[in-house]
């Protein structure tokens, strides 16, 4: 599955993408904010990641810049403990440029098209930038803070939980102010 937004092309990972994935994620500042990626992140981890099967109901995309195909990060939805969860990472050179919000908006549109009714997301408390992205997307904080394991940190850390109701928010995902 592919999806185009204003500046981005979201596309599936291909086996030949492993080195670009490695170049974007093999940064402790990126990996420590993820639950599932190990640290250190190796070439073999990247090779395995791009080979993972993708369930069409829970797509995973590489975030690429439409004008030059630069790999910016990864985003997708996954079934986690019975809930549809949004997850993403952005490579450090692209932080603070609105790419996470734009890609998130696009994936929420895809989730709506696939018939999902509710999406959850979370961020580690020491990563408030991710919380700002979720707020811009229209996610609402649940008020719950839970411990979640981070493979990159090698330990649990407090995580704020959010939710987005795709049914009560018909049409396009809200634009950032």
UniProtKB/TrEMBL annotation:
InterPro entries: Acyl_CoA_acyltransferase, GNAT_dom, N-acetyltransferase. It holds the Pfam family Acetyltransf_3. Keywords: Transferase. The keyword Zinc does not apply. GO terms for molecular function: acyltransferase activity, transferring groups other than amino-acyl groups. Residues 8-160 form the N-acetyltransferase domain. It comes from the Bacteria. This is Protein N-acetyltransferase, RimJ/RimL family.
